[in-house]
Amino acid sequence: MIDQGFIGHRFEPFSAEVEAGRLRAFANAIGEQDPLYRDLEAARAAGHPHLPVPPTFLFCLEMEAPDPGALRALLGIDIAKVLHGEQGFEYHRLVYAGERLTFEQRIGDIYSKKGGALEFVVRDTRVVDHQGTTVADLRCVTVVRNG
What domain count does the chain have? Predict the structure, then answer.
């Protein structure tokens, strides 16, 4: 069983740059056809200062943590038993290419279902801009299969 004493544990914050080239590559990868996410002129014509971030892109930046496996290591989770359970995004404002964002991750909850056959670890991430203003809250639920 995963130790619920880790609920509230905070990981070292890290920062990542939102790069226009990566936004275009991401838009291609997810099949996003709207020129708003690829063409700076189209984005500016729509009233944006730069290319906006597609809705799920911040998950990619979150994977740039210095140790993307820190959660599994801390909790002693075998990667072979991990399933991606859920992912959520709450944006407080649009994010644009050229911004530098800081990711503040914490373990929000740990619980089990089916008599412990499935354990769930909720990671909540606050994303702030260079002024310390929250731009988004991310939630990722990892499922661990036991037995």
Answer: 1
Q: What is the per-residue pLDDT across 86-111, written as a single tens digit (0 to 9) for each? A: 999 999 999 999 999 999 999 999 99
> Is-contact 11 19, C-beta < 8 A?
no
Amino acid at 87: Q
- pLDDT of 147 higher than 80: no
- Bridge partners for 123 per DSSP: 107, 140
CA-CA distance, 88 to 20, in Å (whole number)? Answer: 23
Q: Are 58 and 89 in contact (CB under 8 A)?
A: yes
Q: Which residues of 98-126 are buried (b: 16+ CB within 10 A; e: fewer)?
A: ebebebbbebbebeeeeeeebbbbbbebe
Residue 103 belongs to domain with CATH number: 3.10.129.10
Instruction: Determine the length of the chain.
Output: 147
Q: Which domain holds residue 25?
A: 4-145
Identify each DSSP E strand in 1-133 by its residue range: 14-17, 82-91, 100-113, 118-128
Spatial distance between the Cα atoms of 73 and 66, rounded to a whole number of angstroms: 13
* 106: CB partners within 8 A, 6+ apart: 8, 9, 10, 11, 123, 124, 125
